[in-house]
Design goal:
It contains 14 helices and twelve strands. It is α/β, with parallel strands linked by helices. The N terminus is likely disordered. It binds nicotinamide-adenine-dinucleotide.
C-alpha cells in the first residue's frame, strides 16, 4: 500500500493508532485498494457537544459529549454510548472504526459509530444521570436517526439510559420510533436475549475456537476479567455449559479458585453487593494483573481496553484469548502473542453478539413483530458461528492471525460498499 496522499491522521500513542496499524496490515495482506484504505483511515463525522446540567445540590455543571460516525458504506452507523471519565475524541473515533469492522464481520447492514459522555456514572445520582442523558440526546438529535445512526449501551450505560434517549428523541421529533436506539428495556421494544447477547457471542466464539484447537470445553480452565454485562454473562453461560472458571475479577477485587468458582454464587453475591465482587468468599483474592497471566487455558478480557500490552503479553499462559472487551490488546502485544502461538479471537468477531442482537431488535422494531428468546438465540448463534468460520477461513487463506483474518473479512465487504457508492 502506498503512503497516504492526504495529511495522515495523527496517531502517535493514540488508540486510533491501533486501528490504523491493523487496517494497514490487513490492507497489505489482502491488497486492498489504496483509495478504500484512505477512506477508512478517517471518520466520516465527529461531533462534540457541551451542555449544562443542574446537579442535585443546585449547582450547574458543564458536560462534554461525543459521537463519531466512522462509516455508513454498508448502512446506518451503529454503536454504543459510553459514560466514563476518559471518553475523548480519540477513543470514540477508535471505537466507531471498530464498530464498522465488527458489523461487517457479523454481516450486518450497518456502518460503525460510537459516542460517549465524559462523566463518572458511579458518582452521579439517578436524577443527574437522567438529566445528562436527556441533554446529550437532545444535543445529538440531528446525528441520531433510525436510518442514520443508531445508539446502544456500552460501558457505564444500560437499557435505562436507552429508554431516556428514546423518550427524549421521540419528544423532539414528535413521533414514536422504537428503532431509534437498541438495547432498550423489553417493554419499550427491546429484544429478548439482548442483555446477555455479547456474553453469549463470546461463549459461541470460545466454543468454536476450542473445537478448531481440538480442546474439550469440559476440560479447560478459564479466567474472565470484568464482571459487568459482558464478563458476568460470559462467565454465567460458560459455567452453565460445564466450563471451569478459575478466575474472575472486577474493578474492586479479583479471585482465583483452582477447583472452579461457583459463578451462580458470585452472581448472587454481586447482585446483593451493589454489582461488585469485593468481599466475595468463593476464591482466594489475587492482584488484578495476576488474572491476565494466570495458569489457565482460556483468557477472556471483558472489561477494559489496553490491558494486554507488550509488558505482560510475554507472561500470558493461556493458549486461547477471546476478546470480550473492545481493544483489550495493544497493537504492540499482537506479535508477542503470535510468537507464543496463542490464538486470539479478536474483539471485532468475539464481542459481535451484542450488535447482532441489536440488529435483530432494530428489525423487530421496524416490523412491529417480536420473536421469542429461543428464536433470537438460534439466529444469534448461527450468525456468530458463520462469522467465526468466515474469519477462520480468511486467516487460513491469507496465512495470518485471526485478528487480521477478521479485518480482511470486514474489508472485503466494506471495500465493495465504498467502491459501489463511489466518491465525488
Ligand atoms: P460494564 O460497565 O457493564 O462492566 C465493566 C466491568 O469491568 C465491570 O465489572 C467493572 O468492574 C470492570 N472493570 C473496570 N475496571 C476494571 C479493572 N481495572 N480491572 C478489572 N475489571 C475492571 O461494561 P460492559 O458492557 O460489560 O463492557 C465491557 C467491555 O466490553 C467494554 O470494552 C465494552 O466496550 C465491550 N463491549 C460491550 C458490549 C455490550 O453489549 N455491553 C458489546 C461489545 C463490547
Amino acid at each position: 500500500m502506498s503512503a497516504p496522499t492526504a495529511a495522515p491522521v495523527a496517531h502517535t500513542e493514540s488508540m486510533f493508532h491501533a486501528v490504523l496499524a491493523r487496517l494497514d496490515a490487513a490492507a497489505k495482506a489482502m491488497n486492498l485498494s489504496d483509495d478504500v484504505a484512505q477512506v477508512l483511515r478517517y471518520p466520516q463525522k465527529l461531533v462534540k457537544v457541551c451542555f449544562p446540567v443542574t446537579m442535585d445540590n443546585g449547582s450547574m455543571q458543564m458536560f462534554e459529549g461525543y459521537r463519531c460516525v466512522h462509516s455508513t458504506h454498508l448502512g446506518p452507523s451503529k454503536g454504543g454510548i459510553r459514560y466514563a471519565m476518559d471518553v475523548n475524541e480519540d477513543e470514540v473515533k477508535t471505537l466507531a472504526a471498530w464498530m464498522s469492522f465488527k458489523c461487517a464481520v457479523a454481516n450486518l447492514p450497518y456502518g460503525g459509530g460510537k459516542g460517549g459522555v465524559k462523566c463518572d456514572p458511579r458518582k452521579l445520582s439517578v436524577g443527574e444521570l437522567e438529566r445528562i442523558t436527556r441533554a446529550y440526546a437532545k444535543a445529538m438529535r440531528d446525528v441520531f436517526g433510525v436510518n442514520k445512526d443508531v445508539p446502544a449501551p456500552d460501558m457505564g450505560t444500560s437499557g435505562r439510559e436507552m429508554a431516556w434517549i428514546l423518550d427524549e428523541l421521540n419528544k423532539v421529533h414528535g413521533e414514536d420510533v422504537p428503532g431509534l436506539v437498541t438495547g432498550k428495556p423489553i417493554v419499550l421494544g427491546g429484544s429478548l436475549g439482548r442483555d446477555a447477547a455479547t456474553g453469549r457471542g463470546v461463549m459461541v466464539s470460545t466454543f468454536a475456537a476450542l473445537k478448531k484447537m481440538g480442546l474439550d470445553p469440559k476440560k479447560v480452565s478459564v479466567a474472565v476479567q470484568g464482571f459487568g454485562n459482558v464478563g458476568s454473562h460470559t462467565a454465567r453461560l460458560l459455567h452453565e455449559h460445564g466450563v471451569k472458571i478459575c478466575a474472575i475479577g472486577d474493578h474492586t477485587a479479583t479471585f482465583w479458585n483452582e477447583k472452579g468458582i461457583d459463578i451462580t454464587a458470585a452472581l448472587a453475591y454481586a447482585k446483593k453487593n451493589g454489582g461488585v465482587l469485593k468481599g466475595f468468599t468463593g476464591g482466594t483474592e489475587i492482584k488484578s494483573g495476576e488474572l491476565l497471566t494466570a495458569k489457565v487455558d482460556v483468557l477472556i478480557p471483558a472489561a477494559l481496553q489496553n490491558v494486554i500490552t507488550e509488558d505482560n503479553a510475554g507472561n500470558i499462559q493461556a493458549k486461547l484469548i477471546v476478546e470480550g472487551a473492545n481493544g483489550p490488546t495493544t497493537a504492540e502485544a499482537d506479535p508477542i502473542l503470535q510468537d507464543k502461538k496463542i490464538i486470539v479471537v479478536p474483539d471485532i468477531l468475539a464481542n459481535g453478539g451484542g450488535v447482532t442482537v441489536s440488529y435483530f431488535e432494530w428489525v423487530q422494531n421496524k416490523m412491529g413483530y417480536y420473536w421469542t428468546e429461543k428464536e433470537v438465540n438460534e439466529k444469534h448463534d448461527l450468525s456468530m458461528e458463520t462469522a467465526f468460520e468466515h474469519v477462520w477461513n480468511n486467516a487460513q487463506e491469507f496465512k495470518t492471525t485471526m485478528r487480521l483474518g477478521a479485518y480482511i473479512t470486514a474489508l472485503k465487504k466494506i471495500e465493495q460498499g465504498v467502491k459501489m457508492k463511489g466518491f465525488y
